[in-house]
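Sequence in, structure out. First:
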Amino acid sequence: MARQDDPAQIRARFHDVVNMSAGEIEKWLETDESQAVGFKRDGGESIGHASGRQIVHILRTPPEELDGGDYAHMRKVAGFVRRHLAQGPHQEHRIPGSRWRYSLMNWGHDPLKD
């Protein structure tokens, strides 16, 4: 059985929940909708928006070049997306323009792609 801290397992969980490409995330992060959602510390960039930028970095980095901070963020992303999906509306009520969807997209997951 693989350890929970095994890099291959962390990458697998991350890639299970991130269903947007680096290019899709970058394009999304440039939109007003992306920048309008999420918790903002001190009125600056939201945590989810900053996460999206880090996800793009991770997706574009070869696995052998990822560091401990990257793996910590991958664990955070997998946990956030799974919790957010569990708290969200049922499939038939998922509205394309909802803040719920937009927040998830900042974290690299488009629920309408499921």
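Second:
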Amino acid sequence: MPIATVNPATGETLMTFDALSEEAVRERLDRAEAAFADYRATSFAHRAELLNRAADLLEADQETIARTVTSEMGKPLGAARAEAAKCVKAMRWYARHAEHLLADEQPAPDDVADSGAVRAFVRYRPIGPVLAVMPWNFPIWQVVRFAAPALMAGNVGLLKHASNVPQTALYLEELFRRAGFPAGVFQTLLVGSGAIEGILRDPRVAAATLTGSEPAGRSVAAIAGDEIKKTVLELGGSDPYLVLPSADVERAARTAVTARTQNAGQSCIAAKRFIVHERVYDAFTEAFVAGMRALRVGDPTDEATDVGPLSSEAGRADLEELVDDALRHGANALCGARRPPDQPAGWFYEPTVLTHLSTDMRIHREEAFGPVASLYRVADLDEAIALANDTSFGLSSNAWTRDEAEQERLIRDLAAGGVFFNGMTASHPALPFGGVKRSGYGRELAGHGIREFCNVTTVWYGPPNG
């Protein structure tokens, strides 16, 4: 795949970039290794000062970077601005909390004495250069939610961003440089996917984190496993959205529209399978379909647009194949299931709701990365849970119920990294984020995320005089 900015709303190639040579990559790895040797010894206060400065710069750049993001991957301008603002918030959160999150841990005095020590504690130390392989769908947020904790922990970052967002990738490197981070602490590597293996196998790279597809995750995990290097993977999702009889159906339907179509449905944590109890199915379906039909699809630079284009022609083709397969096998489209007739250029697709789905359809098993909702009717809670868990993924889940017993049951039985009640899944710097099953392993954000790439070091002192 060429490293280029191609406007998804028009299909026009705006800018192309040459990939770094092997020699240039080696130079950047040398720079990262040298930077880590010094940066790892800096204080939390110094790192926080730099990260807060980066947050201030990003806040000032909000409009400019939002327009870059929109031109590269098609996100409506309002959503791109919101993404930049969320990154500012996360930077400031980690600048404020990192020292506390990584403070020495003290075992109970009785346990210290029982170990034969006069003193013992656990210290979190940085591990070195971390390779981040990041996707295009949230091109600033995905990077910042790695970079903010990694840099505050004393690590250095190497960014291999998606090839269709090169301007955003270069902006992020420049942002950290302008903020005063030393040369080599955060670098963008403009390379194709074929270069990842060599970089990850390089002894100067300590670990890797990847957000992306299941095949990409398998590849990175296999290479890192062979090299015995730590990885964190956040892969696909086919998140369930359960609506049960005690739900506020009108609000559940209104939220469902946003949950399915945010970022044109191109989000791992977007709700994709809507599992609705038969007692509220008709009311929910009517409101949900009406909301999906009312969305305005079009130019992402138009402030009135709700849903922009998909990021690529190939992405739209993949989505169309899933929908067409479902329709051939008996599914019914309540709305959408086509390209908008008033958008002859660009990679647009209408918000779609599919019903009468069966387990032999591809869309039942595969992630639909676009504004296509799968709608199921169930008879009871047991059936809802069984259907929710009938997937190889387990990123997050949503459930609408005011019944506390049902809530406890769902916390216990839903196989997912998150359970969000009476609202939609969202990431926040204070809450750990990640999945189970083929949605990956490890966690980003919160204290769990900053500790993923730390050397958890046991420190033990024996009696000074034997």
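Remark: Residues 158 and 459 are 30 Å apart (CA to CA).
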